[in-house]
Give the backbone structure.
Amino acid sequence: MAGPDAHDRYSFTAQPPNPPTIVRGDGVELITADGRRIIDAAAGAVVNNVGHGRGEIADVVAEAMRELDYVVPIWPTPNRLALADVLVERWLPDGFDHVFFGGGGSEANDTALRLVRNHHLARGEERRHKVIGRLPSYHGATLATLSIGGHAGRRDGLEPMLQEYPKVPWDDADALAGAIEAAGPESVAAFIAEPVIGASGAALIAPPDYWTRIAEVCREYGVLTIADEVMTGFGRTGLRWGHHHDGWSPDVIVSGKGLGGGYVPLSLVSASNDVVDPITAAGRNVMFFTYSAHDSSCAGALAVLDIVEREGLIDRAGMQGSRLVAGLKRELGDHPNVVEGRGRGLMVGVELTGMTSAAVVAEALERDVWIYPAGSGPAVNDGLLLAPPMIVEDHHLDRIVDVTRQSIDAVAAR
Ligand code: PLP
């Protein structure tokens, strides 16, 4: 029973009226039921790294599903085995020999929390359970991941249901040492952070030396580091992992989004053998989810990662990201409503002042460009995330820059 507001049926959140109904994807564009072509300047929610409408991925997924539907996650299946091999051998750091799969980033971060807790329990450090996060940050929408996150809008009103762990400012490594001391070092299990802060920060990048100091502090206190690479992983920032820009090595890596590339829902947690081995030796259990590592999802992710490597999309993200940031600086560098344009690879942010991100996003959509609204406080109240598929071409980037400027101007003129 399609009506103008029929979309409200699949959400508990009031949505802007008359959203475009998308019927097809093609490269960098989404095609609406009435034939508009919308440039997907945010790869959805920073998900689609390889571009829309890749029939080859659909074929691989269909073929896998024809052979096999559901198999309990503890048993091997061909694509599960193959994906774990590709990740361990080609993507993860040396000494990260185990992966755990979830459906999305929230499940993966939730699992990372259970992983670090189990690690400390297995080593007899029973008091270590606190996980320190940053302000701002976003790690997911489950109660556990909202607890460790610092996205004001998404936590709003849920606070009584959240486990309150310490939070530190996003750019101050010495504050972490202070927070660990204040919490009692023997009670702190881990520190979690996004290498580039996405949804809550519009691509905030910490100062030079921040991460090496963070790693030092955590090592000193026996606190594990979790890199939340859900947005930054799999080449989005122009290197394989976001943390590769900063010369440090996390103990635990969490990712999602670009792994399935928008074709299959899949996320992962991996950790150094030093983290995992004690858990195995102690016979402790990190429970899977029913849909962990569905064979057809693993097949889809293998096809996505193959494209990323075969087409050189990681270098391309670096190159096109520089072009996008340069264009934004040129067009918006001295705009009174723009605090800063910044980014790493194709994870690019525009921080706004004096207007809401929602208003600018709505103007951009009128001009057939989808931009992801970012920020909600603290630190960044309103911002835009620009993160198109990594196959994006120069003419798309030029259009994205033009429309960003026109949309900000249109809101300013009201
Ligand atoms: N972590 C980060 C850094 C994210 O950006 C997101 C989603 O935007 C999540 C976790 C949550 O992932 P999901 O929405 O797939 O559960």
Notes: The mean pLDDT is 97. The pocket of pyridoxal-5'-phosphate is lined by residues 45, 104-106, 109, 138-140, 194, 198-199, 228, 230-231, 256 (CB under 6 Å).
